[in-house]
Each structure stands twice: as C-alpha cells, then as structure tokens.
Design the sequence.
C-alpha cells in the first residue's frame, strides 16, 4: 500500500534543551518511549497504524539519512495510544536501498511497536536527539484534529542505525498525553 506525500516534518530541528526541565525529560529521554508510555497507560498500550508504504521521502528526511534528494523509502505513520486515546504521533522512514540490503522487515510490523523492536535489538544505535516546536498544520490531516486548539506541538526525532541501515523516527507529543498524565500543557510553553 502506498500513501500520499505528507506535509513535511521540515527542518529547524535543534539539540538545544528547552528552559523546562520536566519537558526536556520527555524530549531528550534516550530510553524507549514505548516502554515509558506503556508504564503510564491506564488501560492498554496500543499502536494504531495510520498509513505505511513506499513513497518519495522529504528533502529533510533524505538529508538526515544521507541519501539523494527524491529517494524512495518506506514510511510508517502510527498513533501510540492509551487504549483508544492517542498520545503520540510517530513517523518512521527508511531508505528503500538500505532496506533491501538489510535483514530488517519494517514493512511487516502491523500494529507492533517499532520502538520495542529497535530497543530489543542491540545492533541498533540511536543517534542524537533533535527537537522542535512543530506547527500543527505540518501534521497529516487526521492528526491535526488531535491537537485541539494548539497551533504548535513538541516533537523529537532521532536516527537508529544498524550497519548501513538508518531508520529515522519522529515522535510528536499530542495534547492528550499531557492531559492524561497530569503534566503541564507543555505545548503552551
């Protein structure tokens, strides 16, 4: 199945922490976000698959993965949820050429968590964490409706590498997460 080209999760990513230590704990946590969310769920951790398939990667994704502009890649977009309540939107991409030369079957995950697999395979190394305030209108339409009245949400991304394979994972923290976990509404910071 292929998906249409998204609005880009464009550049302006940075490694500079925010002034809020509690928010930085979420944004720069090097552990498994899946594991952290699972521990916080009041019902059951679920992965809702929104879309996956081959498509042309954005220029920013190509640059980050060190591949030619306009390269094709596998794109997977999911919601990480507490039961049916979406907490995080995740977009994971990997180059087609690198996937063909690897033994990693990202196209067969279904509703399993990519994070759980990446953290269970010690051969994957996580690169630096980058963060940014992301305008809601850069998110896919079905995710924009989950940001409520917020015009900007916090996002982070990092690249997991194994030999020549790079898997770029971007995670967008939705307002429902902050509400359900009784944190400040970090999206207003």
Sequence:
């Amino acid at each position: 199945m292929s998906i249409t080209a998204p609005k880009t999760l464009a550049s302006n990513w940075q490694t500079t922490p925010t002034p809020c230590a509690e928010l930085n704990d979420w944004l720069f946590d090097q552990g498994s976000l899946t594991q952290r969310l699972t521990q916080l769920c009041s019902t059951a951790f679920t992965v809702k698959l929104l879309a996956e398939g081959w498509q042309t990667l954005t220029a920013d994704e190509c640059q980050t993965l060190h591949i030619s502009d306009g390269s094709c890649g596998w794109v997977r977009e999911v919601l990480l949820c507490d039961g049916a309540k979406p907490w995080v939107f995740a977009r994971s991409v990997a180059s087609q050429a690198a996937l063909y030369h690897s033994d990693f079957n990202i196209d067969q995950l279904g509703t399993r968590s990519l994070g759980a697999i990446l953290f269970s395979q010690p051969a994957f190394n996580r690169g630096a964490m980058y963060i940014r305030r992301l305008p809601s209108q850069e998110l896919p339409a079905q995710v924009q409706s989950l940001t409520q009245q917020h015009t900007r949400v916090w996002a982070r991304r990092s690249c997991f590498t194994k030999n020549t394979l790079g898997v770029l994972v971007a995670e967008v923290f939705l307002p429902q997460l902050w509400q359900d976990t009784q944190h400040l509404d970090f999206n207003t910071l």
Q: What stands out?
A: Residues 33-40 form the longest helix (8 residues).
